[in-house]
Structure formats: structure tokens, C-alpha cells
Amino acid sequence: MGQVTVGLVQMVCDADPQVNDAQAREMIAEAASQGAQMVCLPELFRSRYFCQTEDEAAFDLAEPVPGPTTEWLRALAQQLDIVIIASLFEKRAPGLYHNTAVVLDGRQGYLGKYRKMHIPDDPLYYEKFYFTPGDLGYQVFTTTYGRVGTLVCWDQWYPEAARLTAMQGADILFYPTAIGWHPAEKSERGAAQHDAWETIQRGHAIANGCFVVAVNRAGWEPTPNGQGEGIEFWGQSFVCAPDGQVLVRGPVDQAAVLTATLSLDQIETQRRGWPFWRDRRIESYQPLTQRFLLP
Predict the structure, then answer these.
(1) Is 215 left (phi over 0), alpha (psi -120 to 50) or beta?
(2) Of 73, 121, 175, 180, which one is least surrounded by beta carbons within 10 A?
(3) Is 252 inside a domain boundary?
(4) Active-site positions?
């Protein structure tokens, strides 16, 4: 299957989308200069994380997909001969919006989009106000450099999402992400929260015998209305191999461009040695389609 080099663009996002666009261009080009053939941006990279509050004015940040941002990303992918995975705030119709990941291939163009399936609603993460749950299902895109599955942030906690994407032949699961600490609880719970986040994604890699790439933002972002404590995004973007080993991990509190070269042959080797696919008892899993099993 050969090798592929992935690039992770860990951004500290600005309030101005044009500033973020320029930063993304520069960091994507830097990743490509380091040999990256697939480059992933963090979740909703064009703005600060507006979901800290419920504000109708934030809907003005949304755009059609495909649209202006996918077009300049497509052109950049073509120029650099790479694949770009990007998370965008999609305006589908008036009053209908999605959190959407797109895949742009320098040789094949716009390959398609994935709409985030799991939408959180927690303090400072009020995404249900903005996003309609995805209706395109779990998808895999056959790019010039390999087969990739695109999931988004909250999706990363769900083993079902990883499994169904891997079952369609994904070599790599990409997770554009925006996750961090509530500053008031960081000292008490921060280490455990981060450890849980990384651990479950390493588990997806092991259980499915594939690579996982999680790309987070970093830095403190104020609550948009000025009435909250903000979020301290914990960075630490990482790449995980099919055996669960972390190949590269980003810094906690600053922007960074990371690269890792993945040997796709490791997928076959790992699945032969740990034959979870062979031993799945698929006839016993029907109850998973139920919400809960106790009366």
C-alpha cells in the first residue's frame, strides 16, 4: 500500500476570518514543504469558536459548500499537489446549517463533504443552536494518496462512527477538532479530560486497525459576549498508528505544523496479528440500533 505523509495544522484562531484564511494558507504550504501529501485543518478554522454563546449574528459566518472557501482551498491543493481536509460552517438553505468537512484533492478537485453527525450541547459548546445533524451518513473518500474518512470533533467519542467509517475502507480517520478546558475546572479535571479524549481515539485506531489523525486548535478564546470565562483549547493534535502508538503530538498552547509519515502496510500487518475484523460477531449486534436496553 505504500506510504503517505500527513500534515496537521494546529491553529490559534483570530476573530477575523481573513486573518485565519491567510494563516491557514501559510501553514498548509509549510506542511507541504515538509512533505505532507494530506493536510488537515482544525474544526471551523475560519473563525473563533462562536458556539460558546447562542447568537443569531454568528450565522453570517456560514457559506455554501461548495463555495468560496472550498474554491480557494481546491486551487491551493492543486498548486501544492496535495489533499486538504477542512471543516466549514455550511449554509445549506435559509435557516439550515451544518458543521461540514470537505475533501479537496489537487488532482481530482472537490471530492465531497461530510456533515457532522453528533452535535453537542454543553456549557460553552452550544452547537445544537447552530448545526443540523448530518444526513449524508459516514463516508470514505478515495484520494490520490489514500482512502480517508472524515469525522468531526464530537464524533470522535463514538466508536460506532469510527467503526462504520473504517468498514467502508478508510485507511485514515481524520478528526478536525475544537476542544479545550473550561479555565475554572482545568486544575481539577483538565488532565483527566485530555487523557480521555486521546485514549478513546487511540482505541478507535486499535479496534479498527487504522490510523487516526486528530487536529485541534490551541489558545484561549474569550466568550463572544464577554460574560464568560472563555475556553482554553488544549492543542495537542496527534497522529495514532493502528497499534495505538502516538507518532507525533503537538504543543499545548501554540500554533504548530506537524507531519508524520504513515506506512499503510501496517494496516494489513496489524489486522493479521489482531484479527478483530475476523472475529466480529455481527449477528449479535442488532441491539446497538436501540437507544437503551433496560425498560
Answers:
(1) beta
(2) 121
(3) yes
(4) 43, 116, 153
What's 275's domain CATH number? 3.60.110.10
Q: Is 229 exposed, middle or buried (0-12, 13-18, 19+ CB in 10 A)?
A: middle
In a domain? residue 285: no
Q: For the segment 171-228, what is each residue's pLDDT rounded down to a tens digit? A: 999 999 999 999 999 999 999 999 999 999 999 999 999 999 999 999 999 999 888 8
The number of beta carbons lying within 10 Å of the beta carbon of residue 282 is 6
- Per-residue pLDDT of 25-50, as tens digits, reads 999 999 999 999 999 999 999 999 99
- What separation, in Å, do the N-terminal and C-terminal C-alpha atoms of the chain show? 48
Residue showing cell 449524508:
136
What's the full length of the chain, in residues? 295
Closest to 86 in 3D by CA, of 176, 6, 173: 176
How many domains would you assign to the chain?
A: 1
* Structural domain harbouring 26: 3-279
Residue 220: inside a domain, yes or no?
A: yes
Contact 235, 187 (CB under 8 A): no
Whether residue 42 is contained in a domain is answered as yes
